[in-house]
Amino acid sequence: MAQSPSIFLTIAAFLLVLGPLVLVHELGHLLVARIFGIRADAFSIGFGKELTGWNDRHGTRWKLSAWPLGGYVQFAGDLNASSLPAAQDETLSPEERAGMFQFRPIWQRSLVVLAGPLTNLFVAIAIFAAFNLAYGRIESSPVVAGFSEHSPAEAAGIRIGDRVVAVEGNTIGSFDDIRERVVPFAGYDLAILVERGGRQLPFTVHAADHVVKDKFGNESRIGLIGIAAGKIEIVPVGPVEAVTLASRQSWGIMRMMVTGIGQIFTGHRSVKELGGPIKIAKYSGERLSMGWPEFVWFVAMISINLAFINLLPIPALDGGHLAFYVAEWVRRKPLGLRSQECAFRTGVAFVLALMLFVTLNDLASLKLFGG
Q1: CA 20 to 30 Å from 337, out of 11, 33, 182, 190?
Q2: Domain limits at 38?
């Protein structure tokens, strides 16, 4: 097992991952808000006490705060950093109201809120597209060329030369598609359709529950059906295909996240697989020690995670705001301030409880605590 990176490298790598990703997320909110003429009172990287800052010509206070585990934009008219609207002041002029977030149409508020997660998603797509341009795409046929020892697919009746055309009803176009539909489903019985001699034959294959260790001793559970691809080619791609492929890769990763969370709720995966800031810091240091390409790829993965998490319909997150706007659109009027405040407090409590849980989870996994 390789030696773990130093604590200094780990902290530096963690800041290099989280700082820029939080910055671009909040910039997404701010820039779209400015397009609509919405004023921002504060733009903060981190929460809590301000460490340093300055005011720009738009009247926005840019600041670096004590706790660097996120950030926020506080718009004019917001009660607090979570964008809970303040009570309406009837003495405000039409010009003052025009610059406040809470008085803008639903579609404008929705676009401002969506801009943060979408910016994180675009960052990931840009990184993947750059890798695709630099290295090309892997092309491999979904034809079975061999079996591993004790192969579940071979035991189920699949033969060499069979072409996999569907897994769990999802069409398969390449061998990588098979991995995407098998790896997250350790211990599941999978419906696999193959083509053999012009006929399509259905099989049920039990995906083996396999534990993988990398060079730093980290473990992950993956599903395997024990088949090997034949000829693998690296095909150069142009800019358009690179972006299209990157979009598919990003969507595939988000789909696997949804699957993983669903498996935790149903008990198919342990809650120990949830990670928090300590685990992200650990992986950040390890990836940076492996070289910049590995580190930048990891940044893209975390960027997708941030986009996904922020879109969850939890009050205090971007997805929670969007849920309120949907309710407002259906009701033809906003929810009452008291209802919103109660929901936000519940959301903040949930997020804090989750952060505490995953942090304790991270600590329990460290060697220091017997993990």
Answers
A1: 33
A2: 7-134+284-369
pLDDT, tens digit (0-9, with 9 covering 90-100), for 191-223: 999 999 999 999 999 999 988 888 777 788 899
Residue at 45 is within a domain: yes
Q: What's the token pair of residue 209?
A: 């529950």
* Residues 306-320 as b or e (16 or more Cβ within 10 Å = b): bbbbbbeebbbbbbb
Torsion of CA 332, 337, 338, 344, to 10 degrees: 100
Indicate whether 60 and 31 sit together in one domain.
yes
Using 50, 70 and 90 to split pLDDT, how confident is the model at 187? very high
Q: Is residue 98 included in any domain, yes or no? A: yes
Is residue 341 among the annotated active site residues?
Answer: no
- Find the range with the poorest average confidence among 170-174, 240-244, 266-270, 334-338: 334-338
Domain count, the chain: 2
**Which of 26, 154, 180, 286 is flagged as catalytic?**
26
Full DSSP string of 159-222: -TT-EEEEETTEE--SHHHHHHHHTT-TT-EEEEEEEETTEEEEEEEE-EEEEEE-TT--EEEE
